[in-house]
Amino acid sequence: MDTIKRAMLFEGKAIVDVLDTTEIVQQAINFHNLSDDAAKALGQILTIGAFISSGFKSNGNKLTIIVDGKGNGGKIVVSADTGAKVRGYIQNTRAMGDIQSVIGRDGYINVIKDFGLKEPYNGLSEIVTGTPSMDFAYYFTKSEQLPSAISLDVDVKNGKCLKSAGIIVQPMPNCTEEVIVILEDIVSQMKNIASIVEEKGAQGVIDFYFSHFPMKQLDDVNPAYVCSCSKEKVSQMLVTLGKEELQSIVKENGKIEVGCQFCNKKYQYFEEDIEKLF
Predict the structure, then answer these.
(1) Dihedral of the CA atoms 190, 195, 201, 203 (nearest 10)?
(2) Calpha distance 155→25 (Å, rounded)
(3) At CA 259, angle to CA 165 and CA 36, rounded to 5?
(4) For residues 161 and 278, what is the distance between their CA atoms, to the nearest angstrom?
């Protein structure tokens, strides 16, 4: 089971999250038939999505992350709900190349948080390196005023996710510059965080690297790949097109087929189904 282990450091001055998202990435590979390189790129954004949504407090909170760096993987989209229930896709599922080639360096990161208020929070920052660890650290610093230390890593071989992991350390408003420097230095040594988590486990990483500081363990979160599509939601969307438009499509094509981008499930509607909708 995937997990997020969390701890508060230095008497509330910072929080560390260590994530194991191996099963999430494997499910994404299975749903989308991803190349190894596409899986590495999407997997890192899924991990960030799990981290952000794990902090949501209320049911019904929603997250959307769009990464569009003009790389050969095309646009990456991750959606998530409260409790780190994530799903996502990459436009070019068979993209090849290193992470910077797949994501690209000429574009933006857009993070949308919908808390059910009048307007959702909309954070935007440019992609500066094509490396998610550095670009999301830049995003949190620029858009959310949280100078975060981040390391993300996904190890995939021949369609199997061997390990997907991440570590994110974020300061609280009362954090001192000295503590920030200490924590950034520790995280900078974890470029191969997938291997470290595979060896020590997510809790083992916290214990090994941070337990000698004042520390309080926080509740675990179990992230998962969960698609929220349903026949009911698709039907509600189709109804907005109107009966005549739907009948015209069925007459021309014999049916209407709607596919979910997150899980590739197909929903089919024939003439009798259109009648039932109305």
Answers:
(1) 10
(2) 10
(3) 30
(4) 45
Partnered with residue 128 across adjacent β-strands are none
Q: Identify which of 169, 261, 177 has the alpha carbon closest to the alpha carbon of residue 206.
A: 169
What token pair was written down for 17?
């999250």
What kind and span of H or E run contains 88? strand 85-90
At 148, list the tokens: 């975060």
Residues 6+ apart with CB under 8 A from 145: none
Instruction: Provide the 8-state DSSP code for 73.
Output: T
Cα-Cα end-to-end distance for the chain? 43
* CA–CA gap between residue 13 and residue 210 (Å, rounded): 13
Residue 72 makes CB contacts below 8 A (sequence gap 6+) with 92, 95, 96, 97, 101, 102, 104
CA distances from 269 to 229, 241, 244, 260, 262 (A): 16, 14, 14, 14, 20
- Rounded to the nearest angstrom, the gap between the alpha carbon of residue 14 and the centroid of all alpha carbons in its chain is 22
Single out the residue of 201, 192, 110 nearest to residue 155, CA to CA: 192
> Are the CB atoms for 167 and 191 separated by under 8 Å?
no
Instruction: Fill in the DSSP letter of residue 13.
Output: T
SS3 40: helix
pLDDT tens, position by position, 118-138: 899 999 999 999 999 999 999
Q: What is the pTM (predicted TM-score) of this model?
A: 0.94
Distances (CA, A) of 196 to 117, 131, 172, 227: 40, 19, 26, 29
Q: How far apart are CA 246 and CA 232, in angstroms?
A: 16
- φ and ψ of 128, to 5 deg: -110, -20
pLDDT in tens, 153-209: 999 999 999 999 999 999 998 899 899 999 999 999 898 999 999 999 999 999 999
Contact between residue 60 and residue 116 where contact means Cβ atoms under 8 Å apart: yes
